[in-house]
Specification:
This protein has helices at residues 3-14, 19-28, 32-49, 55-73, 79-91, 168-171, 305-308, 323-334, 360-370; strands spanning 114-115, 123-129, 135-139, 144-147, 150-153, 160-162, 175-180, 184-189, 195-198, 202-207, 215-226, 235-238, 242-246, 250-255, 261-267, 270-274, 281-283, 287-291, 297-302, 315-322, 337-340, 349-355, 374-378, 381-385. The protein is of the alpha+beta class.
Length: 386
Amino acid sequence: MDRNIDYLIAKVLDGTASTGEIEELARWMQEAENEVYFQRLKKAWHAVNGLTANPEREEEELQRFIAYIRSRANRRLTPRRWLKYTAIVVLSLAGGTALYLSREAPRPPEEPIEIATVTPPGSSKATLLLHDRTSIELSDDRGVIVQQDSILPHKGGKGVSVLPALDVQENEERWHRLITPRGGEYQLTLSDGTCIYLNSETTVEFPAGFRADRREVKLTGEAYFEVAAESDRPFTVVTGKSRVRVYGTSFNINAYAHAGTRVALLSGAISIQGIDSDREYLLRPSQLAEFDAQGHFTGIRKVDAHAHAAWKEGFFVFENENIETILTILSRWYNVEVFYIDESIKEYHFTGSVERYEKIETILTAISKMIRVKFSIHDKTVTMYR
């Protein structure tokens, strides 16, 4: 084997390789026999050097890895190529097990994975529930136009489009609901031009007509907003735990019932306050505001806001997220239940990016390659075990 490859592998395992060198090794490992060779050298390297790293080294490698994953999220990789790149970057940190894999070494499971049911990803589907309880099932090829109580086919268009009400005063108390089920997503365009993208298991309530002095919608679940700017008519999103005042902007809100609230701002400006609080917090682009499950404000921090909205672009992006949170997100999109034989698995952490429209088996296989856990799928139930 080429001595240059041996030198490159040593740099990757020692955590001193540059991003370019990591990519070079990833390309080389596309060949099965090369991956076998890499695994052989890695085992020998760990036997000699151990799995330790100082805190400064861990933090430096974590930041390099997250920056690398963000850059990859904007380029459509196949799951196999994504897995290769991610595995190598994780392996570049000798003590990376503490950061990304909790207690376990980054080795693929030796036993075959048990899959009794093929679980496809979610799709474009929703239910429109009018104020008079009329229910309309929607899909990717069946959108509608709504004007007050009238429903028209959305010829050549997708999603739900709301036209301005003819009598605003009469319609401001008439609220419609757009509901996505587990395994669904949908798009809503309001009468002012505001676009709302609903993630799985999400409900948006909106009036048949906005008032002359304000615009307001209600949200349970997760949605991405592109709000049309109107300086004389503010836009407000009300969740169970918070109230977001918008000034013409794009942002993502994650506000599922019985969970905390996260608001990530991509552009523009918004302010946010707890539902039972008078204090208002101003967010700037690339900031995330968080509230706990009781609606108490917990803080604002700088983030890659695009990562929080990546689901809209067809990606799952996880940044040092625990397995329980990751599988909760996946369970909504793939409409599955998750059962843990070993509760400690929930605390393992993972960083990576993968396409949202892949089968769940592909994603779980990728994760299992990083940590010493296994999974099986039977009748819409995913079981995680060691």
